[in-house]
Specification:
Layout lengths: L1 E7 L2 E2 L8 E8 L2 E9 L5 H10 L4 E3 L5 H9 L3 E3 L6 H10 L32
Parallel strand pairs: 1-5, 5-6
Antiparallel strand pairs: 1-2, 1-3, 3-4
């Protein structure tokens, strides 16, 4: 199985469509057997999903995610768990242990401004519906 996490400096990045990197995790027998940092380039969610498909990703862990991206991921056969926060490695370990805290209804509909690292925008939280 291959898991992707929206990634920024070790943390789960909080906006799928604006992530600059993914951390990919190869998982066998419920254990991480390898990782890779993947630069996403400057893409929208459609291109990001194609990139994930090309890498064989089956599951995406992310912070906030828009409805269009959710639908496109489902259409591509990639499961996603939104509303994840904190350390990316810890999120994957928690998923594998069955203890990951996530929000199945996490969305980000606040696409009227640009997100930049460190601005404090937290898609998937109560401040972004």
């Amino acid at each position: 199985m291959k898991i992707a996490v929206t990634y920024d400096n070790g943390q789960v990045f909080q906006h799928f469509g604006h992530t600059e990197q993914f951390k990919l995790y190869d998982v066998e027998d419920n254990k991480v057997t390898g990782t890779e940092i993947l630069d996403s380039g400057d893409f929208g969610h459609e291109s990001l999903i194609v990139l994930l498909q090309q890498k064989g990703v089956e599951l995406l862990l992310c912070g906030g995610i828009g409805g269009g991206a959710k639908n496109a991921l489902a259409g591509a056969g990639i499961r996603h768990l939104g509303g994840c926060t904190g350390d990316a490695d810890a999120a994957v370990e928690a998923y594998l242990n069955g203890t990951l805290q996530y929000d199945p209804n996490a969305t980000c509909s606040d696409h009227g401004h640009h997100h930049h690292h460190g601005e404090g925008h937290t898609c998937g939280s109560d401040s972004c519906h």
